[in-house]
Design goal:
By secondary structure, this protein is of the alpha/beta class. The protein contains eight helices and seven strands; from the N terminus they run βαβαβαβαβααβααβ.
C-alpha cells in the first residue's frame, strides 16, 4: 500500500524527544526517510530504533545546532546522498530562564537567540538549495504564543520566537514564486513536553495534549496543501 510520503526525505531537529521525536515517527510512518537531528545520541538511537521496528527508515545525525559549521557539514553530507530535501521541521529550541527583562543575563539571552533563531536561519540557508529542488517542499517551524502575545517573564524566549516567525514568513515570501516550496508556522499550544514541565513544574501534564497530537498536525501539513505563510495552532479536545 502506497504511503503519502513514500520516497520523500524529511529532516527533523530536536528529534530525540517530545514533539520532535513524535513528529519523526509520524513522518516515517507515512513513508518518509527521516534524518533525526539532536545533541543527545542515546535519545536519537531510541527514536531511530522505534522507527525501524515499525518498518520505517531513519538516519541519525547527532550535532549541536549552535555550531554553525556543523550545520553546513550536515547539509553537505546529506547533499552527497540525496538530491532534494522535501520536509524541514524546525523544532529544536531552549526555554531559558523565565525572568524579568531587566534581569536577563546577556550570556543566556545569547544562547536562547542562537539556538532558537540564528541556528534556524543557518538551517534554512544550508538546505535552501535542496529544498528548492523538491517537487513539493515544506518548511514547518514550531513557534509559541508568547512570540505573538508578549507575556511577563517570557521576554527572552518570546523574542526568539517572534524573530523566528518573522524570519520563516519572510523566507516563504521570498521563495513562493521560485519553487514549489510551502512554509508554515505551527503553534503547538499546551503540550506534555519536558520544556513545558520546566516552565510549569507543578502542572498535571496528563491534562495536556500529547506530543503525538502536534506530530499529527505537522504530518497533515506535510502531506496536504496550503498557502505559504500558513499559521496554525494545534487544538486538542481534552487539553
Amino acid at each position: 500500500m502506497t504511503k503519502k510520503l513514500d520516497g520523500r526525505l524529511a529532516l527533523v531537529t530536536g528529534a530525540s524527544r517530545g514533539i520532535g521525536a513524535a513528529t519523526a515517527k509520524a513522518l516515517a510512518a507515512e513513508g518518509a526517510h527521516v534524518i533525526l537531528v539532536a545533541r543527545t545520541v542515546g535519545g536519537l538511537e531510541e527514536v531511530e530504533e522505534a522507527i525501524h521496528e515499525a518498518g520505517g527508515n531513519a538516519t541519525i545525525a547527532p550535532l549541536d545546532l549552535v555550531d554553525g559549521d556543523s550545520i553546513a557539514r550536515l547539509a553537505a553530507a546529506i547533499g552527497e546522498r540525496w538530491d532534494a530535501l522535501d520536509i524541514l521541521v524546525l523544532n529544536a529550541a531552549i526555554l531559558g530562564s523565565l525572568t524579568p527583562v531587566a534581569q536577563i543575563e546577556a550570556k543566556e539571552l545569547s544562547e536562547v537567540m542562537t539556538l532558537n533563531f540564528t541556528a534556524q536561519q543557518a538551517l534554512i540557508a544550508a538546505f535552501d538549495p535542496m529544498l528548492k529542488k523538491s517537487e513539493r517542499g515544506h518548511v514547518i517551524a514550531l513557534t509559541s504564543s508568547v512570540g505573538a502575545a508578549p507575556r511577563a517573564f517570557w521576554g527572552a524566549y518570546g523574542a526568539s520566537k517572534a524573530a523566528l516567525d518573522t524570519l520563516v514568513a519572510a523566507y516563504g515570501e521570498e521563495v513562493k514564486n521560485l519553487a514549489p516550496l510551502k512554509v508554515a508556522i505551527v503553534d503547538p499550544g499546551a503540550t506534555a513536553t519536558d520544556m513545558r514541565k520546566l516552565a510549569y513544574p507543578g502542572e498535571d501534564q496528563s491534562a495536556l495534549k500529547p506530543p503525538e497530537a502536534v506530530a499529527d498536525a505537522i504530518v497533515e501539513l506535510a502531506t496536504g496543501d496550503f498557502e505559504t505563510g500558513h499559521r496554525t495552532k494545534v487544538e486538542y479536545p481534552d487539553a
